[in-house]
Amino acid sequence: MLTLIKGGRVVDPGNLDGIMDILIDDDRIIEVVPSGKSGKSGSGLLKRRTPDRIIDASGMIVAPGLIDMHVHLREPGQEYKETIETGTLAAACGGFTAVCAMPNTMPVNDNRQITEYILKRSREAGNAKVYPVAAISKDLEGTSLCEYGDLKEAGAIALSDDGNPVSNSRMMRRAMEYARGFGLPIISHCEVKELSAGGVMNEGAVATRMGLAGIPNAAESIMVMRDIALCELTGAHLHIAHVSTHESVNAIREAKRKGLPVTAETAPHYFILTDDAVSGYDTNAKMNPPLRSDFDRKAVREGLADGTIDVIASDHAPHSSIEKDIEFDFAANGIVGLETSVSLSLKLVEDRVIGVPALIEKMSKNPARILGIEKNIKIGSIADITIIDPEAVYTVDSGGFRSLGRNTPFNGWKMKGKVVLTMVGGKTVFENILRH
Amino acid sequence: MQFERKDILDIESLSAEEITFILDTADRMKEISKRPVKKVPTLRGKTVVLFFYEPSTRTRSSFEIAAKRLSADSLSISSSSSSILKGETLADTARNLEAMNPDVIIIRHYSAGAPHMLARLLKTSIINAGDGMHEHPTQALLDLMTVREKKGSIRDLRIAIIGDISHSRVARSDILGFTKMGADVVVGGPLTMIPAGIESLGASVAVNSDDAVHGADVIIMLRIQKERQQSFLYPSDREYSKVFGLNPERLKKAKKDVLIMHPGPINRGVEISSEIADGPYSIILEQVTNGVSVRMALLFLVAGGVRNVDTD
User: What is the DSSP secondary-structure string of A284-297?
Assistant: First the structure.
């Protein structure tokens, strides 16, 4: 099968940025040429063969497949919240050709059997690819190391106790040293539990007014600083998950200036919302780390702009109404993000925080680099491609999500910029071209 | 004015005009409690449910007496265990209650925002009898009523609130209520008990108790909870009493006609000395008396007022 993606703005940062045609034969890219030239110059393939399908991408952004490196797929164990099938379909709809599946499933992904199960189920689903992240510690308890060698062999791409911090500094030190030997990055959920204990939202005037217990910024930043110190000690690749505070941004900036192997991600809600969103006790604005102040939101944006924060990842955390339609104190942390991440991130372009190439870096190239995989638009590459219509305007309707989770604070928001096609290995896994 | 509210959820959402209207109504209700036959037929045939997720003696009996003096039928349900442990959600429990057609649900809950959630879900009127650390609006209204009664007006008074502001819903409601009515509110206490951004509610923070009490027209002392020692909030009752408690020596810094208030229950010898609690400046028991009047006024306004006559 021969597919031609025609006339789009192909943005592959560090490689390409221009109006190009892409020719795909089955699962591989076989030609990338300035638009309109594919028939005449280049390999001249189109002289001999007619494409089976021509996708008109004029006015669109054509990017190497996006990767959401922080996703909770909930399977095995909590299939009423999400399954690998629904989660990877939601990913495809959101423009992601691959996701990293966090290990806090039931049972925890701390052994080969679970990693293999996740990979098997994702192959069966056939939507976005899944890269399993295995646990740092057995049962996420922070007391003993998992078998990183075996897990890597089974297909684990990184290690994290996400949802829980590794509170024991000695355990974290050894985990980083041991992981370094296998080339596996450590994704750290930074939270000092003694400081966050009892807290349900950001500490500050909003929490005080609402009578809710707060979580101070230091609950995150102290552990970011500890892990940076351990990174310096061990030389392991440290990736800081869901950065939410200005102190964390500053610490990571300083660590990078020193040349340490530290990378970092944030989620759209941390650069779009503040703790004001909790007003009215909206449990869809409850997450961990919590939505912070406007000062922190600005700092996260600055961190994205100057490259301190490498990655935008959604921390997609589907919950059912059983966990969310209850008292704020008891509601589960987290929101779904796969189907709103691209549109929300495009607001950074609209607000002139970063340009389109930097956005593609943070949603495709950088996660790929951190995970040690390739995402390129060039001859011979696997055809993992995301097409975005930057002008499409729509309203978010959580009722129409492919995810089983409806827990989003963005329901009813007007968005500009939408994913219209997602291709994984040459196969279109999502398509919604609205125009013409 | 017409009072149009379905619910009384917090002081934050009430205007100064509405607060004045509630206090005026409460003033008129007060006389009923002094009659030999303390009952009027105003809410005959109305059903009031008291739904208490936290232990309470004062607030609950005050509401219950208020309902009875207006001839409403009242029913009291308490739940010491969390709704999650029972396996039924708060929303489900409340929907079941509503299915029995009560006119007012008075709720006390350990979780901030629980009354707001019920107000969104149910058509029944909701009165907040205290939600977590958020608000205790009927306590603030009875405090306002008592101060207005004694001082004639609330405007320009200096109100000191001393104690664990962080964990106190009374403090939040009082700060909002007194500032809305034109008073200056200063809060004092150990800095471990002064929450971040309390100024945004309209209060100023005094560095020490002497400064807080200085020139005060009204001093509201809050109950100190002994279990807070475990959360490192204060070292001992002994030190608390000495540094933050109200004693005759410290009281000299206040105005000569100062009023001493306390939402109860008091810890004698800790936040307040017995001489002061039982002394001439104390109006602690008058607060309790006015509590009934304020709650009668609120029940009347949400269940018996114009709103329910209208076909809404």
Answer: GG--SSPP--HHHH
**What's the average model confidence in pLDDT over B230-235?**
88
- pLDDT value at position A38? 62
Which residue of B91, B110, B113 is in closest CB contact with A210? B113
Q: What is the DSSP string of A6-65?
A: EEEEEEETTTEEEEEEEEEETTEEEEEEETT-TTTSTT-HHHH---SEEEE-TTSEEEEP
Q: Do A327 and B83 touch (CB under 8 A)?
A: yes
Give the burial class of B55: count Cβ atoms within 10 A of its Cβ; 0-12 exposed, 13-18 middle, 19 or more buried: exposed
Q: Cβ(A96)–Cβ(A316) under 8 Å?
A: no
Å between B232 CA and nearest CA of chain A: 12
Of A337, A316, A353, A354, which Cα lies nearest the Cα of A396?
A337
Q: Which residue has the tokens 């990055």?
A: A185
Q: Sort out which chain A residues have CB atoms less than 8 A from B113's CB and list them.
A: 210-212, 281, 327-328
**How many residues in chain A?**
436
Q: Is the pLDDT of residue B226 over 90?
A: no
> How buried is B264 (Cβ within 10 angstroms: 0-12 exposed, 13-18 middle, 19+ buried)?
middle
Of A211, A213, A214, the CB nearest to B135: A211
Cα separation, B179 vs B173, in Å, equals 10
Q: Nearest CA to CA, how far is B36 from chain A (Å)?
A: 42
Residue A280, chain B, CB below 8 Å: the answer is yes
Full DSSP string of A258-289: TT-SEEEEE-HHHHH--GGGGTTT-GGG--SS
Q: Which two tokens stand for residue A382?
A: 């696997």
Collect all residues with Cβ–Cβ distance below 8 Å to B31 and sequence separation of at least 6: none
Residue A191 φ then ψ, to 5°: -160, 120
pTM comes to 0.94
Q: What is the pLDDT of residues A337-393, one digit of tens each?
A: 999 999 999 999 999 999 999 999 999 999 999 999 989 999 999 999 999 999 999
Per DSSP, the residues of B130-159 read: EETTTB-HHHHHHHHHHHHHHHS--TT-EE
Q: Are B15 and B144 in contact (CB under 8 A)?
A: no
Alpha-carbon distance of A407 to A334, in angstroms, equals 8
Omega before residue A107 within 30° of 0, cis: yes
* Partner residue opposite B169 with nearest CB, options A206, A211, A281: A211
Under an 8 A CB cutoff, do A206 and B197 touch?
yes
Find chain B residues with C-beta within 8 A of A282's C-beta.
none
DSSP characters over A221-243 = HHHHHHHHHHHHHH---EEE-S-
* Chain B residues in contact with A209 (beta carbon < 8 A): 12, 172, 197, 200-201
Strands (E), A66-128: 66-71, 96-101
pLDDT (0 to 100) of residue B35:
95
* Total residues found in chain B within this entry: 312
Q: Which of A110, A315, A384, A389 is catalytic?
A: A315
Degrees to nearest 5, angle at CA B187 with B184 and B188: 145
pLDDT at res. B306: 47
Query: How many angstroms separate the CA of residue A436 from the nearest CA in chain B?
Result: 43
| Cβ count within 10 A of residue A258 | 10
Tell me what the mean pLDDT of segment A137-141 comes to. Answer: 98
Query: What is the predicted pLDDT for the residue at A376?
Result: 93
Q: What is the DSSP letter of B222?
A: P
Task: Say what the pLDDT of residue A434 is.
Answer: 56
* Cα angle, residue B41 at apex, residues B39 and B46 outer, rounded to 5°: 115
Distance in Å, alpha carbon of B209 to nearest chain A alpha carbon: 21
Residues of A in contact with B196 (CB under 8 A): 203-205, 207-208, 214
Q: Which run of H or of E encompasses A387?
A: strand A385-395
**Inter-chain residue contact B197 with A329, CB threshold 8 Å:** no
ipTM of the modeled complex: 0.92
Asked whether the beta carbons of A419 and A384 are under 8 A apart, the reply is no
